[in-house]
Specification:
Layout: H1 27-40, E1 51-54, H2 57-67, E2 79-82, H3 92-102, E3 108-114, H4 119-128, H5 142-151, E4 154-161, H6 173-178, E5 192-199, E6 209-216, H7 223-229, E7 236-243, H8 250-260, E8 265-270, H9 276-286, E9 291-294, H10 306-314, E10 320-324, H11 337-354, E11 366-369, H12 373-382, H13 391-400, E12 405-409, H14 425-445
Parallel strand pairs: 1-2, 2-3, 6-7, 6-9, 7-8, 10-12
Antiparallel strand pairs: 3-5, 4-5, 9-11, 10-11
């Protein structure tokens, strides 16, 4: 063995293991499938200049060399897409550690790993010339990847089982690669797993301005309480009321509060009277805060809890935080029995679709970065504008595009003033089921 004990054996190694390896007959076909899939989960508003594609082993080598240059600027990159299997990178720890120091905190890395159960078939395929010749060492288990990323400052936010066949087979690929592969047992047969990774939260990243969006319709008795009870947090707080064509004196109360609370930044936006989802959309056009928080005007989730949501987001414990009313006990009379049963059903359905535990789907309090709003607008289009409340657009959008989702338990109290807007329970339940059905196909099976 021609190697000195005084020399680091890693120093002369190639950064991509398959550099120069002969491509197989289906290598390029597979590469195009990966590229097409990655493009399907990158939001359409992200321009090409904010994407970095490592398509071949040569690209990985060139990129790794560029990372050694302290002047190499990655500050505008939002997505790094690695089209070769992650196992082809020689030193994963060094690669991700260096990447984490250069990319912005909100950047994502898309990559995939082959299923180690397929190793014998890959070996045979390589010998026959259909694919690159791979040894068993080119296959990691998911637990290994979790370890690599955690120790290098990253975490996986979404895992997608997508393909059983490496190339399209007429009439079969659609069923096998989009439906069957998502079912128990057959998930283990997927040829690979796609991953979306983010940098782990490493403490608070500074104070940020916040906008509290308060959609309201006939909430005249709750306006002043919402203003007076909302605490100050972050760099500044904007209280943005969206009046959804109220027929009482809601608008007058908001204007009065603007005069009575000169120390608070109170903004009034007129909605179109089309429901909560559209009211939030109107509000987002006027919102100026870095962090956006939604607060229902009935105050059943109290405004005093908003700083907890803000801290969870700016500390990067999550990219999207929604409240759950089903961890703490409710105040007596806060929620009707039919609503509880409906929430249990939809929480179970959401848990299956999102592949993470979900205990509450319609808690109105949700927090996200304003920069991520285009993701939720894209999900609205995917769900065919069917979500009347906007909660599902937010939750499913966060999941589809790999935001880290967290639930924050809140105390739920009885409404003291005004009337509930959730009266037509059967109709509302059917609408929710329709939206969840769209998500089942578009998020679970066809993404």
């Amino acid at each position: 063995m021609d190697r000195s004990i005084f020399r680091n054996p890693k120093s002369g190694s190639k950064s991509a293991l398959k550099l120069g390896a002969k491509e197989g007959l289906i290598t390029n076909v597979w590469r195009l499938r990966v590229i097409y899939f990655f493009k399907s989960i990158i939001p359409s508003h992200v321009v090409n200049d904010h994407q970095l594609w490592l398509t071949k082993p040569e690209d990985i080598v060139e990129f790794t060399e560029k990372l050694k240059d302290p002047q190499y600027d990655l500050s505008m990159i939002e997505y790094v897409c690695i089209v070769e299997t992650i196992a082809d990178i020689y030193d994963l720890m060094n690669f991700f550690s260096t990447l984490g120091k250069r990319l912005p905190v909100y950047a994502r890395v898309l990559f995939y790993n082959f299923n180690w159960l397929w190793a014998p078939l890959f070996r045979i395929s390589g010998l026959l010339g259909f694919s690159r010749n791979r040894t068993f060492g080119n296959f990691y288990r998911e637990g290994d990847l979790d370890c690599f990323l955690e120790l290098s400052g990253w975490e996986i936010t979404r895992r997608i089982k997508r393909f059983i066949f490496p190339f399209k087979i007429p009439f079969l690929s659609g069923f096998f690669d989009q439906c069957l592969v998502k079912l128990p047992f057959f998930r283990n047969m997927a040829i690979n797993t796609f991953f979306i990774a983010r940098r782990k939260g490493e403490g608070k990243i500074g104070d940020h301005s916040a906008t509290v969006l308060i959609p309201c319709k006939n909430e005249e008795s709750n306006v002043e309480a919402a203003v007076s009870r909302t605490p100050q947090f972050g760099k500044s707080v904007e209280l943005l009321f969206i009046n959804d064509q109220s027929t009482d004196s809601t608008v007058e109360k908001i204007v009065q509060c603007q005069r009575d609370f000169p120390d608070k930044n109170i903004v009034l936006v007129q909605g179109k009277g089309l429901g909560k989802a559209e009211a939030i959309r109107e509000g987002m056009q006027a919102a100026t805060g870095d962090v956006c928080l939604i607060l229902d005007a009935d105050l059943t989730v109290i405004p005093e809890d908003l700083p907890q949501f803000y801290e969870a987001l700016v500390s990067r414990r999550a990219d999207f935080v929604h409240g759950t009313r089903f961890v703490y006990s409710h105040e007596h009379g806060a929620m009707r029995f039919a609503n509880i049963i409906g929430n249990i059903f939809f929480s179970s359905l959401f848990t299956y679709i999102l592949e993470q535990r979900t205990t509450d789907t319609l808690c109105g309090t949700k927090v996200f970065w304003r920069r991520d709003w285009p993701l939720f607008e894209e999900m609205r289009n995917i769900l065919k504008h069917s979500d009347l409340w906007g909660d599902y657009n937010l939750i499913f959008g966060a999941s589809r595009y790999g935001l880290k989702i967290a639930q924050l338990p809140v105390r739920y109290f009885e409404r003291l003033e005004g009337d509930t807007k959730m009266n037509k329970r059967l109709r509302n339940g059917l609408v929710m089921f329709k939206v969840a059905s769209y998500a089942l196909w578009k998020v679970k099976f066809f993404s």
